[in-house]
Amino acid sequence: MATLTYLQAISDGLREEMRADDRVLVLGEDVGAFGGAFKVTDGLQAEFGEDRVQDTPIAEAAIIGTSVGAALAGLRPVCEMQFSDFVACGFDQLVNVAGKMHYRTGLAVPMVVRLPTGGGFAGGPFHSQNPEAWFMHAPGLKIVAPSTPEDAKGLLIAAIRDPNPVCFLEHKHLYRRAKGEVPDGGYETPFTARTVREGDALSIVAYGAMVSAALDAADRLWDEDRVLVEVLDLRSLVPLDEDAILATVTRTNRVLIVDEANATCAAGAQVAALIADRAFGDLDAPVRRLAAPDVPIPFSPSLEAAVLPDPDRIVEVARELLAY
Amino acid sequence: MSTIDMKPTLRVGARRRPDAAATDDGASLTVADHRSLHEHLLMTRVVEERGVRLYKQGKIPGSFYDGRGQEATSVGAAFALGPDDVISSPLIRDLGAHLVRGTDLTELFRHYMGRENALSHGREGNIHFGDRRLGIVGPVSMLPDMMVVAVGLAMGFRIRGERRIALSFFGDGSTSRGDWHEAMNVAGLRREPVVFVCENNQLAYSTPTDRQFRVRPADRAAGYGVAAEVVDGNDVVAVFDAVGRARERALDGGGPTLIEAETMRMHGHGAHDDARYVDPELRAAWAARDPLDAHATIARAHGIDVEALRAEVEERVAVAVQAAAATPLPDPASATEGVFCVGEPAGLGRGAAPFSGFAATAQGTRTAAGPTATADPLTAQTRQAA
Ligand SMILES: Cc1ncc(C[n+]2csc(CCOP(=O)(O)OP(=O)(O)O)c2C)c(N)n1
Ligand SMILES: [Mg+2]
Q1: What is the tally of structural domains in chain A?
Q2: According to the model, what pLDDT value does residue B359 have?
Q3: pTM, entire model
Q4: In chain B, count of helices (H) and strands (E)?
Q5: A102 → closest Cβ in B141, B157, B340
Q6: In chain A, what residues touch B382 (CB-CB under 8 Å)?
Q7: A105 CB near a chain B CB, below 8 Å?
Q8: Is the peptide bond between B144 and the residue preceding it cis, with omega within 30 degrees of 0?
Q9: Mean of per-residue pLDDT scores for chain B
Q10: DSSP A200
Q11: B178: containing domain
Q12: How confident is the model at residue B360, as a pLDDT?
């Protein structure tokens, strides 16, 4: 066990898996000598060489498309989008080529696309997005979104070992803020949800950076209102852990779902639809959602703070739900 | 990183290579090779003629596309490949490549007709298939996405030190998209062992090349550090030679080659299109250059009975169509199966490599594992995965 940041845990997982499996290779812009825009791949090229840690031109379709080819050739590529926003430039290769390959041809595409996501640092409209819903709508892609260092390492290793294309959402806000105990060696975290905190009055369902916002809100609701809030961290969006979601509804009968992404057709909308469909009889109040409104994420700190969900807003909506 | 040593662009006359005598045009081909080439040319044409008819009779659902007049390009190119080479992917005019690699005719017609089949299990139709067991990656519609995938396959082969190449087919229309640029740039930069075969058939659907680009694809190659060659795409021997040279270059570390095969789409874009927009004079000029007629002359000179071969091919196609028509449609309950792979991935296998030149080398021996001898592409465990 070591105490690592979320970013160090991702690097650690990547290094572990590259040592354990010589099929694993890394591709991306500035990932080599420079170590990546966020330094996730720092030191990897020195250890594994230029074939296994490749600096690519600015060519997202080529990064993803050649990763598909390398996967078909028997390798296990882990490619990096410098910011998740740029995956739009390689969207077609991911959605139409990688995602549909197995269903259409029987060929598996074991690859990981690392996607540094999220806002909260004045990144503006093109460096703050949460693109998970684009890919949830595309059959054949798995999508995971860790909220802690331990899960970041374990989910990355599981993603590399998975025989399917996996979108690995790593939240930039957590990179250096989230710290925690991380087991040594290689281990896999399953693509299932985790109950982070047990409660009886209300469930907050979240993933990625919104898990810590939900925990802050839950602390305040205990301190100020003496209410026990359950927090469910989805960890995986595809597959979605339907059993865990339905189970938390059964325990608390009140649900608030929080997304940092734009509200329409977001992951949280899928969770809300599931509950409406399968757990309506367990509800004591309407399902509530908090998400970013459907605007590009603005640059100025005052504007950005106005659109991203935060603990204050979570507490506010939770109180409305509890009073229903 | 070392600087790129620009390979000179090989520019060769469009019809016949002027240096043909000097380079032993087709000299490596035996009588058996010519017989095999001709058989595959005929097979391509007969299958597609039958496909168009079945489509018009309503027996092939959806749409149907053929490569009438272009058979020499896909047959000649695939004939130059070794069993471990991978095609990613044959496109809309490239049935010949599937046939040279050994794709089973009955499975092919089952696929076209939307019946249960080992190639696509009914999840795909028309030209969207590829038998992974034969080292073929099926294409997607989006042009030319599979060219980028071919570069990645080649990268994988290079990194693992394997002596094999990837080959990608695409049309003139593909060369205007961004993925074409990304594939050319990355392949040239890294000198990946990949061969690009551009079928310049004068048209992208209804749009002639002079309304697509100012600079022809082969002339753009030098800008990427990619060698290029223009060949007569209706001359199966010329295409075979050009792809063979490009393959050798790739295996020797010389990097990628773009082969621009000049040809003409003699039918509409698909069976639904009467191609009335094509200049009749242009069509007539190309009709006089039919690739099957051209190779029939060579085949006869080698003592091959072309008429008997055609009758044999027609019989095999008729039998396959009959078997396909008797095959049920896929079980509706299977529609949601196989989106994800469960368990160990099933990889790419080896294709048939009928060229006699490969039989001499141990690794080039024509593979015994034909499509009927190997496992179903969607493995049992995968099919449970719904
Ligand atoms: C990116 C993309 N846009 C549109 C289409 C629709 N489409 C299918 S084939 C075709 C024409 C392709 O022309 P070309 O590449 O020259 O190939 P050819 O059909 O002539 O063999 C078009 C426009 C497509 N497949 N891909
Ligand atoms: Mg064309």
Answers
A1: 2
A2: 83
A3: 0.93
A4: 13, 7
A5: B340
A6: 102, 106
A7: yes
A8: yes
A9: 89
A10: S
A11: 31-382
A12: 60
